[in-house]
Amino acid sequence: MLNAGPISLHYGKHLALDGVSITVADGETVVVLGANGAGKSSMLKAIAGLVRPAPGALVTLGDVELLGRPTHKFLEAGIALVPEGRGIFGELTVAENLELGAYTRHARPHESRQRALVLDLFPRLGERQKQIARTMSGGEQQMLAIGRALMSCPRLLMLDEPSLGLAPIITTELFAALARIRETGIALLVVEQNVKASLRIAHRGYLMEAGRITGTGTADELRDDPAVQQAFLGAA
Ligand code: ATP
C-alpha cells in the first residue's frame, strides 16, 4: 500500500537520509528502530509530506503518487502523522481537537463514526470533552493526539515515539490501544524507543543507522537478532 523511496534528504550540507526505502502493506504494523539522530523522524516527515526529499524519490499510497503535492493531499490520501511532542492544540478543548482532526474533505462525512471509534479506544477522552488540552497529563495528551489523527480516517497512521516520557503503566495502556487500532485494519508505521513493546505489536520492522536502512525482518527475526538485542534490548 505505502511505497516510499529511495528518499534522500539534506538539511543544508548534512545528509539526514541517504536513499531510504520503506514499504507498508495494507493493515500491516511496521516498526522502525534506530539510535537518536538515525533519521527516523525525518523519514516520517518525508512520508507525511512535511519535508521535501531530493529528486528521484517516490511516496505512493495505493496507486496515488504524492510527492510534490501539497501536505494536505497526503492527509487526504490517508496518511496521518502523530509527531513527536504530539502537536495537539493546547488551548483548545478535547472535543475541538478531535473535530479539527476531521477537517479534510474525505474525513468529514465519517466524523461521527470515527469519533465513536476514538472514544471507544480512549474512554477518558469522552469524559474530558470540555477540558483544555494542555491541562491534561502527558498520557492523555498522547491519546488525544492519536485520537485526532484517527479522526482523519487514515489508511496509514504513523507515530513518532508515542511512549516518550510516559509512565510504564500509561505506556502499557498506549500499546494496548495501538494493538486495537491494528485490529481495525489501519496500517501503522511506528518509530519507538520501547523496542520490546513495539516488537510485540509489529508484524515487521526496519533498522536505521546514520540515515540508511541497515536491516529488516519480521518482528520475531528482529527480536532474535543479536545486534538488535545488544543495541536495544539490553543484552550483554
Ligand atoms: P531522534 O530519535 O533523536 O529524534 P531521529 O532518528 O528521529 O532521532 P532525525 O530527527 O530525523 O533523527 O534527525 C536526523 C539528523 O538530521 C540528525 O543529525 C539531526 O540533527 C538532523 N536534523 C533533523 N532535523 C533538522 C533540521 N530541521 N535542521 C538541521 N538538521 C536537522
Automatic annotation (TrEMBL):
Residue ranges annotated for the ABC transporter domain, each copy included: 2-235
GO BP annotations listed: L-amino acid transport
Protein's UniProt name: ABC transporter ATP-binding protein
Family under the similarity heading: Belongs to the ABC transporter superfamily.
Transmembrane segments: none
Record's keyword terms, sorted: Amino-acid transport, ATP-binding, Nucleotide-binding, Transport
InterPro entries for this protein: AAA+_ATPase (IPR003593), ABC_transporter-like_ATP-bd (IPR003439), ABC_transporter-like_CS (IPR017871), BCAA_Transport_ATP-bd_LivF (IPR052156), P-loop_NTPase (IPR027417)
Organism: Devosia psychrophila
Lineage, opening ranks: Bacteria, Pseudomonadati, Pseudomonadota, Alphaproteobacteria, Hyphomicrobiales
